[in-house]
Amino acid sequence: MEQLAGFLAISFSHKSTQIDIREKIAFSTTQEIKSFLQNLKIENKNIQEVVLLSTCNRVEIYIYTPEFEDTKKFVITKLSKKKSIDFEELQKNADIYTNQEAIHHVFCVASSLDSIVVGETQIAGQLKSAYKFCFDNQLCGKNLTRLIHFAFRCAAAVRNSTQISNNSISVASLAAKEANSLLEKNGIKDKIAVVIGVGEMGSLTSKHLLHYGYRILLLNRNKQKALVLAEELNSEYNDKIEVKNFSELPTLINQYPLLFCATSATQFIILDSMVEDVDFKRFWFDLSVPRNIQNPQIDKIHLFDVDDLQQVADENLESRKKNTIKAYEIVGQHTLDFSKWLQSLGIDPLIKKLRELAKNASLKELERSIKKGFLPKEYEENVAKILHSAFNVFLHQPTINLKKISDKEEADPIIEALKTIFDINDEVVLINRYKCEYDTILH
């Protein structure tokens, strides 16, 4: 019998993978993701559907496949070759989840329970974007759509049933808070920050700094984008953002104590050779993955990356422990509910199809009997009723038994065996059972 397909999650996150590995395997463009995933599907037919999520905290690949072990090795091999990382090194950093564990993990990710900052809201948007991109490019279909849709439903239940996202914080807000605290501790009263990058992380960082009363010197390679963000924020914060030319970067990093870097550059944009030894302490926050600041060789510069904010995040987690426990209970229940729902997708249509086969066989034999003269035509309606009752009685107990096992582990092989015996095509059974809610979960 053909092996059943299921969910596989390959995770490289802040929990198991150091930033120096994460930045090497990060994907910088959607085109790079598309090319990588398309090649995976072309070269390995066991990869039926795939979604890739790449953020500053994680690179994760979600797959629908009938071959977990071979698929895992294949994907890690391809990733190691593409990113020029030793296979063994990459494999030991990977967290692997299959079937129900994979479902639970994806639900935790969507609900921000697996984030550096538990309760942050960025991850939901990042997961939606990753799914939408893969769906639009025919990289995933009904099975991962079901998984992601239920993940968002679970995340909504966590938000609505707990206070885990109240006063929502993020890596950007933690960085701004930590920077403000460091400046106060060191008696630095001039609230000026250099911010490099105007993407989501740079924009959020700027907003949090403005909330703390900082004046911002904003830089971006595309100056027009920086001007657009400055205009948007200056209307609310009384013109506290000044856009600088990117060419001024080497000068500005040596003039001010506080700097934040959050760009999508794939290499260092602040080099050690650009750094001058000045007579004041500097606090630099590199919120980019891959990192954009080369580690400076000057003692008076304190450099923080996204992983260095873990301790601050842990303190935040302690204060939210009650909500976190409740959130995990919700994720556990949704995991069970989703697994049962998946089973019902096979059970209910299978029962319907079996009844349809029995009905068609009965009516076909009735029609044949009348044509051959075994039965008068005027008896057709009454005999049809008798036959209908007969196959209903015959299928009554099997129907009850099938529904009883629908949420048990042995259901899958029984369903597959029945489909094989009665020659029932999977797509015939399932194609109309799930209406993709792609539009409703993204807009």
Query: What's the CATH architecture name of the largest domain?
Result: 2-Layer Sandwich
Indicate the percent of residues in helices: 40-55%
| Pattern of helices and strands | EHHEEHHEHHHHEHEHEHEEEHHHHHH
Number of folding domains? 3
Please tell me the overall pLDDT: 86
Give the topology:
Elements: E1 6-13, H1 19-25, H2 30-43, E2 49-54, E3 58-65, H3 68-82, H4 87-93, E4 95-98, H5 99-110, H6 122-136, H7 142-161, H8 171-185, E5 192-196, H9 200-211, E6 215-219, H10 223-237, E7 241-243, H11 249-252, E8 258-261, E9 282-286, E10 301-305, H12 310-319, H13 321-371, H14 380-404, H15 411-421, H16 426-430, H17 438-442
Parallel strand pairs: 5-6, 5-8, 6-7, 8-9, 9-10
Antiparallel strand pairs: 1-3, 1-4, 2-3
Helix pairs in contact: 5-7, 5-13, 6-7, 7-13, 8-9, 13-14, 13-15
Written description of the protein model:
- By secondary structure, this protein is of the alpha/beta class.
- It has three domains: 6-168, Glutamyl-tRNA reductase, N-terminal domain (Beta Polymerase, domain 2); 171-318, 3-Layer(aba) Sandwich (Rossmann fold); 340-403 and 411-442, no CATH class.
- Helices cover 55% and strands 12% of the residues.
- It contains 17 helices and ten strands.
- It has a six-stranded parallel beta sheet, covered by helices on one side.
- Helix 6 packs antiparallel against helix 7, helix 7 (142-161) crosses helix 13 and helix 13 runs parallel beside helix 15 (411-421).
- The radius of gyration is 29 Å and the shape is elongated.
- The relative contact order is 0.10.
